[in-house]
Amino acid sequence: MNSSDPFATSPKADKATLRRHNLSLVLRTVHDAGEATRAAVAGRVGLTRAAVSSLVDQLLGDGYLTEWGKTFSGQAGRPGTVLKMARTGPAGLGVEINIDYITVCVVDLAGTDRVRLVERLDNRAAAPTAVLTQAARIAARALESAAEQELRPVAAELALPGLVSGGAVRQAPNLGWNRVAVEGVFAQALSALRPAHRALPVSADNEANLAAMAELWFGDVVGDGAGKGAGKGASAHDGTGRVTSFIYLTGEIGIGGALVLGGRLLRGAHGFAGEIGHVVVEADGPECRCGARGCLEQYAGQAALLRAAGLDESSGAAGVAELESRARDGNKQALAALEDAGRRLGRVLSGAVNLIDPDAVLLGGVFRGLMPWLAPAADAELTARVVSGLWTPGNGRLRASSSSGDAARGAAARVIREVLADPAAYAERGTN
Amino acid sequence: MNSSDPFATSPKADKATLRRHNLSLVLRTVHDAGEATRAAVAGRVGLTRAAVSSLVDQLLGDGYLTEWGKTFSGQAGRPGTVLKMARTGPAGLGVEINIDYITVCVVDLAGTDRVRLVERLDNRAAAPTAVLTQAARIAARALESAAEQELRPVAAELALPGLVSGGAVRQAPNLGWNRVAVEGVFAQALSALRPAHRALPVSADNEANLAAMAELWFGDVVGDGAGKGAGKGASAHDGTGRVTSFIYLTGEIGIGGALVLGGRLLRGAHGFAGEIGHVVVEADGPECRCGARGCLEQYAGQAALLRAAGLDESSGAAGVAELESRARDGNKQALAALEDAGRRLGRVLSGAVNLIDPDAVLLGGVFRGLMPWLAPAADAELTARVVSGLWTPGNGRLRASSSSGDAARGAAARVIREVLADPAAYAERGTN
């Protein structure tokens, strides 16, 4: 049977599997609605009221749901209590290790950031093990704060600016890391610091992938309910600005990228898709840290932008703030640098749009604040070069990413998504 | 519920739906195996022998399957007859309308090309309606041949070199077509010629998409059984050279492209993904028929290749044969033209590989015969620029497409895939 079969054979379902499935269905229904009565859940999922009550009892017992107050349905009948996601219990730990900062956050079942620790440091100056140990130290402090809030992270997800696969960073050019077994090193460092968390599962992914998922789950311009399946040729644009097919670009010291199509991350055959920062712009351009020449990163990455504007390319966030300020003041060199970067971004993006045909392109990281000066040139290139003719100037398809998600939150939220997909697997005390 | 939910709610299944599903399951099992006994089918699909017999009886009665001879299982027990796909009955009609040819083929349930008609003509010289009417004429002749072979095409699929969506060509730059309602015009022309086929459903897609599907279904370097799902980060390479994630490029007068990931065609949000021919190579390069400047097509398309080699750019297949012959003879201008095109192909492909992370890149159309001279330069660019480091010279990931499939066969085979997915919907006399 090939994988494009429209009728895939369903896996065998027994009673226990069905109950686990239905526990997830009920939990996700409350999660997506924010709050709901048992009757509303029953109506939504198409199960009997009795079946839903039994499932809800288990979810209450396991600490996934809480009951709040009383509501009247507006119709005859007895009032029902409202179910909400628990603010304590299972949580996700997200750890973003980037070039010049480490962010750790703990997200609860509702997706809320409950703990957040950020340290600015130069991770290029230290060995990978030292950086991962430092990240574990910050994570240990976050776990203490989480415990005080009665949150119990059930897994950790690391976000890293590089090619990640099989628990390891294959290559992170801007960190200078090659073949670093990040999951193992971090897990060991954390369990040395917090023996109680020795069994905490640790996984890792590319930071742009996780930032893109945060955008999908939490972004104000991107929603997750309206998505048509990818590959159906249907636009996922629903007229309210909510899109589920987008290219996500994040300007950091390097440029990270991720592709989301029909609400799903496009990973590629080996997990390395989305490396838009290393698409070639000029065949004989400046050498890139990846070893090739003329990559987009060398024209529109943070260092390249600062350099072209006459600023210290290693001046980091302060330099970017200065660049914004100069652009706002009409400084010619700053404006020319941003226009040139925008044009090159637009050219590479037009190629990516011709290949992938997404609904939108979202720019995050340092690009967010620089949008007023980057976007016009980029938009003009996209308008001229997108062959479908579906790109018109200022049509809103090139946008700043929202500020409500980042890679750390995306990482923590991915843990929550796994809990929602099979709550029984994460219950501290099974009543099943 | 969002579309990335690992547990999507299953659609309600009643008894009739289940039987239709199981008819498809049994038919596809025989299709994929080539031939099988009832017992082998039962073992494969996990249904009882009695259930399979009942389903097989219906499929025999509806003319989807035939019974052949007797086999002995090699174990004790009575001999079973062998089931094969019927060589008569439901079939698919594929119609490829390209710049300088029209190909029509009829494919049977086993996927075999049973009728094939090709006409070489200049479709740029005629109005769209005239071209579609000519295609209908050829299709009518193919339907006559099919009837003589007792084949009954149940639907037609058109393959066109352009952006196709909603039954229309939005834009086909090399044909000079804009907003042509191809499905309707073709269906009308065919029903005028063959009133008996008035009800034949007609659909349309991009020719590179359909050629890529032919490659997936029939190619000798690409199989469809070993595919891991796209988006799982796993390589679909199974060591035998069978891949299910690839970029497909076809060199025609233009350059067509398609992306197949995990055995599925990547369509994009509006159905326009895969337009690799219009990825920019030089921002200020020659004007392209799409309206932009410096598209890949202007450097590596057939006309560009012929021109750079000092040949008449409109000399078509004869010119390409001459180019091959000159390259074989060591003609410097021909070799330089091919090396330059190969380098530019390689640059654009390296960007596409960095974005999509496929297992392979397959070159079809005129590129097939030119591989010996295009591939080395393209491979060198890919090796230098693919950031994952997974591209090494001559690793076999850049390949000529196989000769066993083309867009016309892919189009006809797509009809067969739909029949296999729900045979009951296409049965002439329902016994259900």
UniProtKB/TrEMBL annotation, chains A, B:
It holds the Pfam family ROK. InterPro entries: ATPase_NBD, ROK, WH-like_DNA-bd_sf, WH_DNA-bd_sf. It comes from the Bacteria. Gene3D superfamilies: 3.30.420.40, Winged helix-like DNA-binding domain superfamily/Winged helix DNA-binding domain. SUPFAM superfamilies: Actin-like ATPase domain, Winged helix' DNA-binding domain. Belongs to the ROK (NagC/XylR) family. This is ROK family transcriptional regulator. It comes from Streptomyces mesophilus. The lineage of its organism: Bacteria, Bacillati, Actinomycetota, Actinomycetes, Kitasatosporales.
